[in-house]
Amino acid sequence: MRLLPLLTPENAPFWTGGAQGKLLITCCSDCSAAIHPPALICPTCLSRNVVPRAAGGTGMIYSYTINHQPWLPDMVVPFALAIVDVDGMPGVRITCEVIDAPLDEVKIGSRVSFTFLPVEDVWVPQVRLSGAA
C-alpha cells in the first residue's frame, strides 16, 4: 500500500513522465528557472510560460534518513528515504526512496540514478546508487 498523489494539470507531467522513463521537471521558458514542486506560474519571473522538461536522470544525495516506522499497513521497513539534488536542474531537490542498496551504503554525496515504480496511474520516482560519495 502506498499513498498516491492526486494528479493535477501542474503535477501530472512529473508523476506520469516515468511511463517513458523520464523525470519531467517544470521549467520556465522565459527565465529558464527549474520549478519544483510543479507550478503553473514561475515563482522567479511570474511567467505563465512553463513547460515540463526531461532531467538527465541522475543526481546526488543531499540528505537521507533510514525509516524504521511502518507508517502504512504492509509497509516494509527499514528503508532509506533521500533528498536528491537533480543534475541539470539547479535548486530542484526530490524526496524519494533509495532502492536495491544495503542501507549502510547510502551516504550523503552518493551519486544516484532515477528509476520509477508504476503504481496505478502514477510512476513514483525512486533512486539507485550509481557511485560513491
TrEMBL record:
Specify the ChsH2 C-terminal OB-fold domain's residue ranges: 53-116
Q: Which Pfam families match?
A: OB_ChsH2_C, zf-ChsH2
**InterPro entries linked:** ChsH2_C, ChsH2_Znr, NA-bd_OB-fold, Thioester_dehydratase-like
Residues in domain ChsH2 rubredoxin-like zinc ribbon? 15-50
Domain of life of the organism encoding this protein: Bacteria
Q: What is this protein called?
A: DNA-binding protein
Q: Which organism is it from?
A: Novosphingobium hassiacum
Lineage, top ranks: Bacteria, Pseudomonadati, Pseudomonadota, Alphaproteobacteria, Sphingomonadales
